[in-house]
């Protein structure tokens, strides 16, 4: 007992030392017993870096005090890069890994097929070089029907089996839908929920799915009642909530031209807005490189004035509907088009004008918008009601193919 208590005391002292060094604050992840950094890192950037770059990005994250990472991406390169970056220091990061996401024909795919799910999860562990992850996140459940289909399914039996075997320590689910998130919170067996939260999404009306058509047409000062109930329930019952889309998806809230409420927020204001809710454990920030991570880490030195989000919240003007957040949930495209990347380049070209650099990036893609057949398969998976075929038509017109 003395040895165990000594280890616990040492762990506590180490965390306090790290916190004192980095100014990072840690919060409980619900009732899991885990303490997580209030800002944490997403996985997107690791697919764009080589091994050395991935290690450098992880160095900065860990040195800053970050101890939590979300890994939804099934791209083998992403998983292998993160595995290499964590080699020899696996204990420095709490991993939130997704179950039900695989890499098929060079594209991300959400699945509930048991054989695919098992292969995808074993690949995750192998590439990370670990025998377990702390949070096993059921990947993207965005409708009540999908949630109800989980009950008694072989997929869910497998998730419970993973926890029994110790391959996952806690069960979570990711969702963009407040109604589904509330159902998950009330299930009694979900311990962590990854949820899309920011000042714009909170204030949309017109349905339980905040990106329904016309959702931005009637923004109100008050938060959607379903979201209020979800936040309160999680706070009361100590269910951990990890935040995705902190900056509006693709950083939209950081630019007045793309902000869904017509005014730009700073990263500090967005983070402060989310962390103001008692149920929130950590904001997961997507970064592509060291410069972006360094900019986000200004949060650790930000003044209270810099964190004050009251001024931009006075603006309730709707700006846009069905905007792509580059989340890749629309994949896989039967034609192999990297839809999220095409939309990202399209948005930049339409906002700032077509440049030789943008054209070169577009030309380098293996498949282009002109290959879109308007089959509509992406529309069934997009959680943000993006009219992908029309976006592909616009991209073809701008980029020439």
Features:
401 residues, alpha/beta, TIM Barrel, 2 domains, eight-stranded parallel sheet, two-stranded antiparallel ribbon, 15 helices, globular
How would you portray this structure in words?
The protein has 401 residues and is an alpha/beta fold. The protein is 40% helix and 14% strand. It folds into two domains: 25-313, Alpha-Beta Barrel (TIM Barrel), CATH 3.20.20.100; 339-399, no CATH class. The strands form three sheets. It has an eight-stranded parallel sheet with strand order 3-12-11-10-9-8-5-4.
Q: What is the structure about, briefly put?
A:
This protein has 401 residues and is α/β, with parallel strands linked by helices.
SSE run: HEEEHEHEEEHEHHEHEHEHEHHHHHH
User: Ends: how far apart?
Assistant: 68 Å
Under the CATH scheme, which class of the largest domain? Answer: Alpha Beta
Q: What would the average pLDDT be, to the nearest integer?
A: 87
Tell me the strand percentage band. Answer: 5-15%
Helices, strands, pairings?
Blueprint: H1 2-22, E1 26-28, E2 35-37, E3 39-41, H2 51-64, E4 68-71, H3 76-86, E5 94-99, E6 101-104, E7 107-110, H4 114-128, E8 133-138, H5 144-150, H6 154-165, E9 168-175, H7 178-185, E10 192-196, H8 225-237, E11 240-244, H9 267-275, E12 280-285, H10 290-296, H11 304-307, H12 310-313, H13 339-352, H14 356-363, H15 388-399
Parallel strand pairs: 3-12, 4-5, 5-8, 8-9, 9-10, 10-11, 11-12
Antiparallel strand pairs: 1-2, 6-7
């Amino acid at each position: 007992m003395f040895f165990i208590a000594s280890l616990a005391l040492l762990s506590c002292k180490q965390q306090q030392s790290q916190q004192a060094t980095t100014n990072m604050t840690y919060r409980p992840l619900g009732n899991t017993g885990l303490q997580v950094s209030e800002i944490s890192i997403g996985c997107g950037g690791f697919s764009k870096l080589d091994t050395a770059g991935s290690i450098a990005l992880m160095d900065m994250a860990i040195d800053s005090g970050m101890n939590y990472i979300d890994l939804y991406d099934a791209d083998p390169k992403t998983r292998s890069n993160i595995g290499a970056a964590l080699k020899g220091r696996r204990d420095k990061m709490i991993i939130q890994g997704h179950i039900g996401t695989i890499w098929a024909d060079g594209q991300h795919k959400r699945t509930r097929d048991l054989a695919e799910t098992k292969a995808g999860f074993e690949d995750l562990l192998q590439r990370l070089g670990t025998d377990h992850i702390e949070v096993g996140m059921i990947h993207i459940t965005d409708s009540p029907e999908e949630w109800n289909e989980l009950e008694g399914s072989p997929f869910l039996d497998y998730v419970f089996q993973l926890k029994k075997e110790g391959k996952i320590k806690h069960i979570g689910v990711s969702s963009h839908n407040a109604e589904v998130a509330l159902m998950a919170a009330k299930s009694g067996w979900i311990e962590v929920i990854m949820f899309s939260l920011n000042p714009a999404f909170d204030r949309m009306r017109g349905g339980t799915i905040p990106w329904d058509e016309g959702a931005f047409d009637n923004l109100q000062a008050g938060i959607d009642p379903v979201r209020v109930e979800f936040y309160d329930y999680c706070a009361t019952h100590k269910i951990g909530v990890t935040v995705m889309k902190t900056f509006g998806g693709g950083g939209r809230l950081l630019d007045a031209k793309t902000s869904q409420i017509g005014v730009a927020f700073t990263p500090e204001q967005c983070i402060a807005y989310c962390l103001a809710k008692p149920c929130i454990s950590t904001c997961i920030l997507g970064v592509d490189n060291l410069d972006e991570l360094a900019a986000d880490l200004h949060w650790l030195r930000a003044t209270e004035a810099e964190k004050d989000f009251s001024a931009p919240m006075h603006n309730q003007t709707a700006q846009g509907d069905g905007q792509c957040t580059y989340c890749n949930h629309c994949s896989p495209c039967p034609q192999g088009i990297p839809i999220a990347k095409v939309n990202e380049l399209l948005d930049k070209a339409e906002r700032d004008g077509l440049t030789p650099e943008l054209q070169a990036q577009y030309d380098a893609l293996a498949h282009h918008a002109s290959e879109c057949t308007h089959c509509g398969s992406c529309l069934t998976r997009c959680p943000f009601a993006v009219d992908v075929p029309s976006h592909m038509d616009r991209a073809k017109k701008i980029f020439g193919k």
